[in-house]
Structures are given as structure tokens and as C-alpha cells.
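Complex record, two chains
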Amino acid sequence: MNRFATRELSMLVALVAIWAFFAWQEPVFLSARNLSLLSVELAVTAVLALGMLVVLLPGQIDLSAGSGVGLAGAVAAVLVFWHEVPAPVALLIATLGAVLVWSAMGALIAIERIPAFIMTLGGLLVFRGLHWLVIENQTVPVVEGGSQNVYSLLTTYYLPDVAGYVLAGLAVTAIVASALGARKRRQSYGFPVDDGELTFLKLFVLAQFVFLVVIVTNGYRGVPIALVILGLVAVLVHQLVTNTPFGRYLYAIGGNEEAAAVSGVPVRNTIIGAYALMGGIVALTGFMQTAYSGASTSTVGSLMELDAVAACVIGGTSLRGGRGTVLGVLFGALIMASLLNGMTLMAVSPEAKYIARGIVLALAVWLDLRLGKGR
Amino acid sequence: MSDSAVLAARSIVKRFGAVTALDGVSFELRAGEIHALCGENGAGKSTLIKLLSGVHPHGSYEGDIFVDGLPVEFRSTRDAERAGIAIIHQELALFPEMTVGENLFLGAFPRRFGRIDWDRVYAQSSATLADCGIQLDPATRVGDLGVGQQQLVEIARAIARKPKVLVLDEPTAALSRNEIDTLLAQLRKLRERGVACVFISHKLDEVFAIADRITVLRDGAAQGTLATAGTDADEIIRRMVGRRIEDHYPRRQSTCGRTLLALHGVNVDPPNAGGLALRGIEFEARAGEVLGIGGLMGAGRTELLMHLMGLWGNRRAGTVELDGQPFTADNPRVALAHGLAIVTEDRKRYGLVLPQGVTFNVSLSSLKRLRRGAFVDRDAEVARTRTIADDLRIKAQTLEQPVGTLSGGNQQKVVLGKMLLTQPKVLLLDEPTRGIDVGAKLEVYELINRLTAAGQAIVLVSSELGELMGMSDRIVMLCEGRVGGTFERSEATQERLLAAAMGRLEHAA
């Protein structure tokens, strides 16, 4: 318990340090406009990272996620722009396709025992090639001219101010209710809980944070719909991994696959399920990232899989499986998104950005190993 | 000690924690003799040879070891090798991706101008192999060889170092009849050259075919050294048994009900060619009954249980009936769903998700039945786990404590609890008391009584004869994948059980 708290605290300190540094170097970092953009970038990174969490928990990996993001976005864009398919239908088709393809990869990994690293590395190359084929090496906008559709709105729609506050109110109520409910349950089980004051303090800070986000984003155009999507995906994945048999199986397989199998865990189907879910999340991220770029180009999604893995690892997910939480991944994604956003503001060259990302990733893993010692 | 002893041990005491593995053992190997070590599982044979070959370094035991009459202090296996003692362990230690020649010379490659002289490696390998009577191309990849041939390569490797003493720990376990003959002939040839040999085998016919003298160990104490010419198999078996039964076995017989598990003429082929196969397995377990399964190491006890759970081998013939219905499990899920559950021997590997808590582990096999809608019903999960934990007296700070931090006995109870929560009709227990303290052992025995009283059938695999005889209503002894003998509780004696395990039932009967 103590170690966990140390870890959370050190992540918070790192985040504050990063923000303080960028605010000092580029005061515009803290402007409502930039923070609003940052929240959209966070949403895209974090949604993919949450999918990666589901794959990492049973000790697998998905290196093809970034290429898949580009491909799914491209398929939807081509359907909408060149074939005039209605946007919702296009998104549905691309999503179903992704779920199918990822299920197939999952089946090859789980049943044929192709190592996930190799299988998805192959996927990375294949999907990148398909992506470029699909867009015929052109730039394919997600929508005609200045008009809008469901696709383009994914990252350009902002909730009206009032709706933002209502949503924040609902969210805070739900969080407080579920937190207090969980606390009461744990007490009834005789499990240790934080004392009342600490619980209140945590919830109070969280509520303040939620309203702060709304106030800040309302200072620009309102709460981005992308952030709402992230919230929904986060709640969904959290419920899935902590409260369903499927989620328990993910942790069990990652913790000890042989014991899981002997215990009657459907190891193969669980792994296939994890990849199927990843396919859906890759498609969703693809739509958001492509919409954010305004068009499908050959570079959309490039290297996003590594940002997703980095976010997971920074957030305390074990690459060997069996350990990781949604909250941690959200934190990790926020750190990654903040770094990228801040460096862009400071006009850091792409070369230096790559180097910085790499160092942060290695640093995070090293830190994780240090803090994880004695386990 | 006689002057001709090349290797001798005097008054050796070796402890592992609270367990005394060797208790004042003396042993003497004469030049040019083949000396067999016999004893039950856990009698101390492997511990003794590990001491003689430096695996357990000087200082970790009491007593003295002598080579050619001079005291030695082996700090590592290298020291022992330098003193001319080569050991061939039960588990193969070859590199499957390398060729036979590379394996033979690994660590001692002949060099030329600083580079490995491959011509000499292969020329010498050929000579060594021919010398050992093994017909093999030294350029063959070891992984492409059968287990038996690999064993011969291992022996050739030891011989290539020109040892004074060769120690073989069950070298024939994986060999075919022909390969065994080759090996035994090879050992005789080495004896003619004056190489002394320590030979561990469970197969008494081999022992009598090759050994000059036999030392029997029991419970970590030597039971005398006999010249092979002056003794017979019955005498050896008599000395091997008679283990003191210190533990209390509180078996209470319960009334037997219908047959819950029955095997008729079951043949199972191993997943890998050349491995142990099960042949003609025949037994039944009734409600309220404990069926004991015994046998020596490698007799196929664990494989049999794993097969029933759908984890090992392909059934080629015979039928398994579970509660009167024909039954085959492709995986443990099917088995668990039909009321068959297993507590495996290696609980850390097959039993527990160590970083997770007690509740997580106990409920893992029953999550489908602990649902409310799509979600796990936490109330029911915690309540059931608490009931089980109280019932089995699992000692944990909270039910969330990671099971990796629990004691061995409590870990075993968590695995038991997980299986009990599935409400099995038949519970397979593979060495359920291994590595747990006496108190926890007693609790496991009490649990067995309660479960059988409640009408479950228990299949108990144990390598401790005392435990088998104390806790089983009927005992099946396996021997090399076959049933060596079946005994009612009243007719089981240690001699008869052991004779059956060695495939020599007719001699002891």
C-alpha cells in the first residue's frame, strides 16, 4: 500500500514539474486555448493507451496499434470523401473491420502461439502498407470543404458551456457516490480503508479538478467532445478490468498463465477478446486522430503505439502482465501528452522530440524497476 | 576406511532448514567398482551425490569427504570436476541448439591461434563417441536426438573429461532396452579401466546386473552396504522400507457410496515422442473414499492426474467415467464444469497468481457462478471466500493480502479453497502436504476426512508411503506408467507397496 502511494505521488510530482517547466518557458502553455487542445491530444493518446492496457494485462503487446490508427482513419475517410458513404456508416464499417482483423491476430497469438511481439510487428508493416494503398498516397480529408459530419466533429465539437457544467456536476456526483459506496463495501468486508478525512480530501480535490477542467475549457470553446469520449472509454475499461470475470482473467493470465489455465480460465478466448477490444479502440483512436489532423495522410498514427505503451508503463503497467490500472494509464497519458504539447509550443525540433520521448520512456521503466524492487 | 577408497564420505549431516536430509551417513567408493545407491523417494540419495560433486558446497554440511584418502573441501562443482569426479544429473544439461561435438567440448574447446580448432573438436568427438560405443555423427544438433541418445551424449561428455569417479543419477529412466544395454556395457568397460562409478537406479534388475556393491539409504541414514553377490532384491527392499511414521494420520473411514470416478484400461500417449506413456490404467474411486496413488519418481502419477484434467497426453484406448458418465476433458474448464478438480503438486507454478490477493485466487475458478449481470458479485465473492478462509483456517492479515506473501501451508489452503469453491465431486490431490509444516499437514488430513464424510471422492497422490497408507482406503501403485499393484488398506504393507512400485510384486508376495 505504502509503495503504491509513493509511486502515485512521484508521478504527480513529475507531472507538476513538467507543467511548471513549460509554463515558465512558454507562458502560453497554460492558456485556455492550449489546455483545451492539450485535452484533445490527451484524449487521443489516452484512449489508445487504455486499449493497450487491456492487451498488456495478460502479458501481450500490440505494436500494430499506430499503423492501425492510420489505416482505420484512412478507410473511414476514403469511404466518406471518395465514396460518399454517410459518415456514421463509414465509421461503423471501419470499426467492425478493425475488430475482425484484431480478433484474427489475437487468434493467431493465442491458438497458434505466434509471439505477440512478432505478430503485431508484422501487423505494423502490413497495416502501414494497406494504409498507404487505401489513400493512394494522397491526402484524404474527412469531410467536404467547410461542412461537418460525425467524423469531423469527433475532435472539433465542443459542448455548450452550460452542458459542460451539467456534465461536470453529474460526473462528480457519480464519482462521489461510487467512491463512498465502494468505501462502505470495503468496510463491510473488513478491508482497510482510508480514514474519513483523507477520503473527503481526495474526493474534494478530484471534484475541484473536474470543475477546473470545465472552467478552463469553457474559457476557450467548451468541453471538447473528445474528452467526453475519453471519460466514457475510461469508465468502460475500468469497469471491465476490475469488475467482470473477463477482467479478472486478464490479470490472472498476466500474473501466472499456467495457474490460470489449471484454474479453468479460458486463456485463449480471453486473449482473443483483449485483441478484439483493442481493434475497436484502435479504430476509435484512428477516427479521432485523423479528424484531429483534418485529413488522412501517410503519417497519421505513426509511432502512436509507442506512446501508448509508454503511457501504460509510466502509469505503472507491467510489460510482463498482471499489473496496471486505468487511473495510472490516464496519468501516464497525461504526462506523455503534456510533454509532446509543451515541446511543440517551444518549437523543439522533431529530432529532439524523438530523443526526449525515448529518454522519458527509458527513465519511466527504470524508475518502475527501482520502485518495484523488493516485491 | 579401507586404503582403496577413491571417494569416501564420513558422518555426513545435511540439513535443509528444519528438515534433516542426511543424518550421519558414511559412504565409501572403491577404485574400479560400480556402487549402487538404493532408497525410496526422499531417502537422501540425490542429496548425497550432490554433496560428493560439490553442488552443495563445503560448509553447508557437517562431516568430511575424502578423495584418495585425503580430505577435500569442494566449494563448487568445478572443484569436484578437478578432483576427477564427474556427475550426470537426472535432468539433462545439454544445449539443444548446439551440435553433439560442441556439447562435448563446451568450456574446454581445443584452440589454435586463439580460435576454436573445429577440426580437432569433431575429430576428437568422433573418437570419444566411438570409444563409448555410440554411433552418432558429432555434427548432429542435440535437439534432433531422442531423449535416450541425448542421455548417452551426456555420458560421453562426462567420460571425455576422463574422470576417476563417475556419478550417474537415474541414467536409465528415459532409455530404451537397447540403449540401457549399451550404457551398462559402457559402464563395465569403464570399470575395467579402473573408473569407479556411483549408480542410482530404481530398477533393481539393473542394479543386480551391474553393481558390485549396494548401499541402501532410508530417511537420510545408511542401512548398510552389501556385496551384490551376497544378497537379493527382497533383502534390499526390506532395508529400504521401515520408515518411521512420525506423523499422525487421522483417517476416519466413511461409508462408501456410488462410484464417482472409474478408469478402465486407459492408455495415454505422451505429448512428446519418447516420453512416459500410461498403459492399462485401471481403478475406481467411490463417494466417501480416498484412493491413494503411489509410485516412484517418474512412474506417471502426476501425468495421470494432469491427463484427467485435460492438461496432458492423448488418450488412445480405454474409458474414463465420471459419476457414471463417459468423460473426456480437453481442458481444465471442462473438467471443473463436470465436478473434477485438482490441487497440483507445484502450487507456485500451477496453483497461484502470486501477486494477487486471497479473494482473487480463491474465486478465480468460480467467477462464472459469482456473477450479478455482467459483473462479479463482490458481496457474494467476499462472503464465500471468507467462509472458505474461516473453514480452512487460512491465516492472512486481510483477504486482499497477496498470496505470494503467505506461508506455504496457507498458500496450499488457498489452492484447496479455490478448488472447493467449485464444489467438485472428485478432488485430485497431488502431493498436498509437500513443503508445508506439520500443523498444516494435519489440517489437510482433517479436511480430507470432512470432504469424504460429505460424500466426495478423493484421489490422493503421495510419494510418502506413510501418508498413502495412513490416509487411503485403497492404494494403487504405479510403475513406469502401468499399475504395479492395487491394495486394500488392510493388505497394504510398506514392503508390498514398494515392491509393486518397482514392478516386483510377485517377489514380495
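Note: The domain at 5-240 of chain B is CATH 3.40.50.300 (Rossmann fold).
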